[in-house]
Amino acid sequence: MEEMQSVMARITINGKSAEINTGVKCYLGDWDTVHHSIIGRTHEIKEKNKALAGIRTKINQLYYQQTLYGQITTANQIKETLTGTKNKHHYLLALMAMHNDNVKQQVGICKSKATYLKYEVTRKHLANFISRTFSKEDIALDKIDHQFICDFELYLRTVATCGANTTAKFMQFFKRIVFWP
Prior knowledge:
Helix content: 40-55%
Order of helices and strands: EEEEHHHHHH
Strand order of the largest sheet: 1-2
Number of strands: 4
Structural class: alpha+beta
Oligomer: single chain
Largest sheet: 2 strands, antiparallel
Distance between the termini: 48 Å
Number of helices: 6
């Protein structure tokens, strides 16, 4: 007896592909490779085809939304957005809070209280910078680029009125957080 197979959707952009499981199953012999749908007229098959059409539409919408705003779109980005894994990306201040909690637990063992406090001050400066510059409470790590780093350094020197050495130290702590495993 033939077993039902999962219908996979392949997203291809600029020759690079990503696949997602649609959650729809059908028999291999019932799959129409030309129309990308299940052959049949039963209510169940119509519902499955409707679900597949909805996924196709959503993929196209995501592609056009992302390219409309001049973003470079990849098949993996659309897959992550569609499957919800994109929402699991780390955010800078959340990551920094986790890091600082780890440092706090090590105070008196292998870290000093002063080191912990320096990381906390760095987090506060970043929170103020993000709030002031982006009007947000946090920013996704994938949004941190060269311009963000330059703007943060400028913020430390001008708005926060930090000296050259203090700015360099805060930037060093910031770098440790961004590249923290």
